[in-house]
Description:
Layout: E1 2-10, E2 13-18, E3 23-27, H1 28-33, E4 41-42, H2 44-69, H3 74-83, H4 88-100, H5 106-117, H6 123-132, H7 137-144, H8 149-166, H9 171-180, H10 185-199
Antiparallel strand pairs: 1-2, 1-4, 2-3
Amino acid sequence: xxxxxxxxxxxxxxxxxxxxxxxxxxxxxxxxxxxxxxxxxxxxxxxxxxxxxxxxxxxxxxxxxxxxxxxxxxxxxxxxxxxxxxxxxxxxxxxxxxxxxxxxxxxxxxxxxxxxxxxxxxxxxxxxxxxxxxxxxxxxxxxxxxxxxxxxxxxxxxxxxxxxxxxxxxxxxxxxxxxxxxxxxxxxxxxxxxxxxxxx
Length: 200
């Protein structure tokens, strides 16, 4: 039997330090369900078992709340639950449940992300963001293919027109700025040249 010597709570996680030097990281929802106190005798293994047994409903509730704000990728949900120190088995169960009830879909997430982000950025930048969110290359490409090339060009042109004033009609600088925003070189160059042509 060990003894609790210190308890701190931060960012949805309770950190419990034991007299032996052992440290428990507990999701706040579980800690509130079964509070610990300084100087309390505790069997760390027994408490870990409790966390594993009771973690699922709390983790599922946390994931559903996370999804109410916007669509999320599976990787985002996994990362969020890991930050709260839910174990891998619990996290996997939650993702299985969400998928079973169609509450999470990387394809749907990709389509939503592309719809919003492509207003400001080119396909290359949006594709990179989707990779960072854990979306597969095939799913990302399917979502990106929904944007017609002419539509992307018109968005690049609108940005090039604004950049034309900022960079004083310098085609090279306008092109480089558009490339940084994720537009392909050829498309960026074409938009830059057209914007400069309109201003002369």
